[in-house]
TrEMBL record:
Lineage: Eukaryota, Fungi, Dikarya, Ascomycota, Saccharomycotina
EXPERA domain boundaries: 3-147
A GO-annotated cellular component: endoplasmic reticulum membrane
Membrane topology classification: Multi-pass membrane protein
Gene Ontology BP term (one): protein targeting to mitochondrion
Transmembrane segments: 7-27, 57-82, 94-117, 129-148
Location of the protein in the cell: Endoplasmic reticulum membrane
Family assignment from sequence similarity: Belongs to the TMEM97/sigma-2 receptor family.
Signal peptide span: none
Protein name: Efficient mitochondria targeting-associated protein 19
Keyword Membrane: yes
Organism of derivation: Pichia membranifaciens NRRL Y-2026
Keywords attached to this entry: Endoplasmic reticulum, Membrane, Transmembrane, Transmembrane helix
Main location: endoplasmic reticulum
Amino acid sequence: MISDSVYFYYFLVHLPITVFMDATFVIPTEYQLPIQKQLSLFHIQQNKDFLAVEAPLWVRLFVIWELVFQLPFFVYAAINYLQNGRTKYSERTWPMFLLYGFNAGFTSLVCLIYVWTESGRHGLTMGETANLLGLYTPTTLIPFYMMYDFWVRIADQLQSVEHDKKDL
């Protein structure tokens, strides 16, 4: 299994991405920080991310959920990791990791599928499509792996509890 430190650094990296990039999908341009505007423009120009240009309603809803649930979870998870001696997450947090993994993996998977199926309609070459898919793939695979990892941890813990009850 992946060490919890990998998840810790994933959250630390994802914090500024959420605040400075993803939030621009729902914050009106006139209220965005200059750095948000610059990063968003750079990202769109470099990666031809038509999702960022169009920002369809379903993407904006995903981003609102990211800001309401995922962003606070990044902070909570990072603090929990530090409080546990920088070695692990406490068992009481495991269900939240499972939920986060499903939510983040699923929403990113929807974006991946949309990019794959709609990139030609937006004039992207195969290379540009592959580049854009490469940007969305880690935010799909890492959360889905996290979901699996914490599912196994919870299942093992429940099995251990059931085994202990049988011994009584």
